């Protein structure tokens, strides 16, 4: 906007303002009615949905669902859309940071004097696209709960090693299924494909020791299973056994 | 006799104007003095602060023609924040930021034993969702109406900071009940922060109060959620409102100029 456009805007705005009504009581009445609606919505949600506590936090547990509150689903889903490991920092902080900088600087790169949405096609389209993208990602995040089942046939190599090993394998499968791994990893037909790599054939790339090391010292954002290794080594070892048979 | 002349409220057309007092009226009776006690107190404060000018400037400024219901979203967001502040104070009365079980037990106590405890807890919990929705709707209105343009650029920037702080409140508050859901969600959230470029690892170390999620992490989240961010949000809402009152709320972009103004424009 140049000086002339600025002055013209201020002139037109003064005329519109002079033709308007006082803030009190006209706008105050609308705002108060809206406040009553907001209060009623909050009270209704509190009465209907309640505020139940889940089980107490337990760092050594294996049954948890690492899911954020719904309004962070779109960030969580962004992790799944961007797959390659070297691009993960871009997805987690890069894209949100760029969006934030774009938001901050909006009045500085959009300097046209036009205010009507239908005469600002780029801005309006970008805004609608952002809303649709965030709505879509939030919906995807709400839909994709972490499943707690792994339907994989026991491989012949496992059965061949005797019933004790099969029991260990099945226990490990159960621990993995309950540990929320499927929130980010794919096992055969189960689990979400991302942000973590699919684990269907993980043992082809990683030996048993490397799998155990990764569980204790994972790449962010995966939580560490070090506490489980210390407090319940049997469960931890079963987990490693199961994962090391995925070929 | 109060010295203050309170601004006369704008009366609807056709409403009879109150008759001014005749000069030389006799001395006030005690009952009349008592009836004007409220005005006398306001007068006393105003004589020492001169606040009435500011209040008049704020309340009796004009809002442009065509202002519609979309323009209530900002004040609705502020109202949701006030609701969060009040319910938050009641929760803080009972809450103990003790990671070894005290935090969870204190919230259990609020839910099970305290009168209306679960109701207030629920209002705080769901109020956060309502506030996040309202602040996004308010931003969408500002964006599509082009209300961030000259001369309101600075108010847009303050608004973006308020949006980020609101999301930070939602993130830090989520840990406080210290149940399984909040604990693991926060671990993943802090780890996501850690993957960020440059400052990422430092940011997650700061949030965790060290490389590991420990006992001080909870009190850190508690202090950020209870003291640091609410103070900044309160101050920034003040600045936001001041600029709104000073620059005026925008008219809807489709609003036609009144005929008299168009004539003046052409003459100029």
Characterization of the model:
The complex is a heterodimer of chains A (247) and B (268). Chain A is an all-alpha fold and 247 residues long. Among the domains of chain A are: 1-52, no CATH class; 156-244, Cytochrome c-like domain (Cytochrome Bc1 Complex, Chain D, domain 2, Orthogonal Bundle). Chain A has helices at residues 3-18, 23-49, 73-81, 88-109, 121-143, 156-159, 163-178, 202-205, 208-216, 226-231, 233-244, and one strand at residues 21-22. Chain A is elongated, with a radius of gyration of 27 Å. The mean pLDDT of chain A is 84. With 268 residues, chain B is an all-alpha fold. Chain B has helices at 30-35, 37-49, 51-59, 73-94, 102-112, 117-144, 153-175, 180-194, 200-208, 215-247, 259-267, and one strand spanning 62-63. The chains are: A mainly alpha (247), B mainly alpha (268). The interface between A and B is large, with 89 and 97 residues.
